[in-house]
Design brief:
Blueprint lengths: L1 E4 L2 E4 L2 E2 H8 L3 E5 H14 L6 E6 L6 H9 L3 E4 L2 H9 L7 E3 L6 H10 L3 E4 L2 H13 L4 E8 L21 E2 H6 L1 H6 L3 E7 L10 H19 L6 E3 L17 H15 L2 E4 L3 H4 L3 E13 L2 E6 L8 H5 L5 E3 L6 E7 L8 E9 L6 E4 L20 E6 L2 E6 L4 H5 L5
Parallel strand pairs: 4-20, 5-6, 5-13, 6-7, 7-8, 8-9, 9-10, 9-11, 11-12, 12-13, 15-17
Antiparallel strand pairs: 1-2, 2-3, 4-14, 14-15, 14-19, 16-19, 17-18, 20-21
Helix pairs in contact: 5-6, 9-10
This protein binds ligand LLP.
Length: 412
């Protein structure tokens, strides 16, 4: 819900220029109603299944206000650290709706999660299964688990965010599961009720999902015939969004026709773990144009926000649209760069854009997922503010970090 109205960029019913006067720059801006719309859309996609847990991948954006929205919409949490669990619970979430993924769960995290009574651990290795079993035994508990399977299906996405092919560090290969089935069955303090997968992020094609679920179906049948009692399938997240407005997003029609129908036939409980889909398009990074400089025929727009605030372009060659808050008639081609002392600190090369001048503001669109949550203090830059828009109202959901807050845990 960020778009132009009479050449002025609006978020919901708000002229974003007004927000720069209130909150300074740079800051993240989110559209509340866009997030709600995405949640409700996905709920509808899964509505034909009987027993579904939609567990938001908290890593995508973990602001308490956003987590509270998830809780209010009945959304669970997929977490990868105890910190994420505690944030979800702090936002009002019920621990019984938390699934704990991640390859390196520590003893302390496992113990605390058992005490919190989370729904399930998504186990990523055989040694982890043994460790969870031992800790559960000490606590005299029997805990529910899923084995995260590496189904060896290529998700056709960026190599740094593909997770479900052999050679990734994630999950357990099918062969390893079969070879260790007796060991897994002998672990009395864990109950393996589910098999899970997450084959990659930012998928636009729904077909790899379908192929991976077919692999999972065969594996579930196989392990059940070996004496397991798998009653749930966790299909992970990965639903892609339209970063480039000339491209299409995730093919939900195909997903519904193929994957949802297949899941219906399988007649299991279903978990899914969307992260990016819920928040990416709702968020924009608003930045001020500090300078426009011209060198050897190139025009650089130098912004006050950088790769420490939004690292995805530097890290994954990500594409994000950049819209000036005021669209002028003439256009030019620019390199949009940040202030960080790294050549990789840029947001776009040679991008056609309506003319911008020093003192203008621009919005980097679709920055709501893995934006603020991956930001850092690199170059001693305080973490920036987060602001929520709701129709014609706006409010701060995270204050800009001060210099003192940035250095307070350091010892001199
Ligand atoms: N479940 C598991 C086990 C995951 O590892 C992930 C993401 C998700 C769910 C959520 O995936 P999503 O629906 O957001 O695609 N920082 C990268 C993305 C890393 C994703 C890691 N795992 C980026 O900015 O593109």
């Amino acid at each position: 819900m960020i778009g132009y109205k009479n050449n002025i960029l609006m978020c919901e019913d708000i002229d974003i220029r007004e927000l720069t006067k209130v909150y300074g720059s740079p800051f993240y801006l989110y559209s509340k109603n866009d997030i709600l719309q995405k949640i409700r859309f996905l709920k509808d996609i899964f509505s034909s299944l009987d027993d579904v847990l939609i567990a938001y991948a908290v890593k995508a954006e973990n602001n308490l206000s956003i987590l509270k929205m998830m809780v209010e919409e009945g959304i669970g949490a997929d977490v990868v650290s105890i910190g994420e669990s505690l944030k979800y619970i702090k936002a009002g979430g019920d621990a019984r709706n938390i699934v704990f993924s991640g390859v390196a769960k520590t003893e302390e995290e496992i113990k605390k999660s058992i005490e919190l009574n989370i729904k399930r651990f998504n186990i990523e290795s055989i040694p982890e299964a043994v460790r969870i079993n031992n800790i559960a035994k000490e606590l005299k508990k029997r805990v529910k688990c899923s084995i995260r399977v590496n189904p060896n299906v290529d998700a056709h996405t960026h190599e740094k965010i593909t997770t479900g092919v052999n050679g990734n560090k994630f999950g357990v290969c099918i062969k390893t599961i079969i070879e260790n089935s007796n060991l897994l069955k002998s672990l009395d303090n864990i109950e393996i009720e589910s098999l899970s997968m997450h084959i990659g992020s930012q998928m636009t094609d729904a077909e790899p999902f379908y192929r991976a679920i077919l692999v999972m179906r065969d594996l579930i049948n196989e392990v059940n015939s070996m004496g397991f009692n798998i009653t749930d399938i966790d299909i992970g997240g990965g639903y892609g969004v339209r970063y480039n407005k000339d491209h299409s997003g995730f093919d939900f029609d195909k997903f519904k026709n193929e994957s949802i129908n297949l899941l219906k036939e399988m007649n299991l409980k279903v978990t899914t773990e969307p992260g990016r889909y819920f928040v990416a398009e709702s968020g924009a990074l608003i930045m001020r144009v500090e300078y426009v400089k011209e060198e050897l025929g190139r025009k650089y727009v130098i912004l006050d926000g950088g790769m420490n605030d939004y690292v995805r372009v530097a890290m994954y060659d990500a594409y994000n649209e950049i819209y000036p808050l005021v669209k002028r008639e003439s256009v030019s081609n620019y390199d949009f760069v940040g202030p960080i002392c790294e050549s990789s600190d840029f947001f776009a090369y040679d991008r056609e854009c309506s003319v911008v001048e020093e003192g203008d503001y621009v919005a980097l669109l679709d920055a709501g997922a893995y934006g603020f949550s991956m930001s850092s203090n690199y170059n001693s830059r305080p973490l920036i503010a987060q602001v929520m828009a709701d129709k014609d109202k706006h409010y701060i959901i995270r204050k800009r970090q001060t210099f003192n807050e940035m250095i307070e845990s350091e010892i001199i």
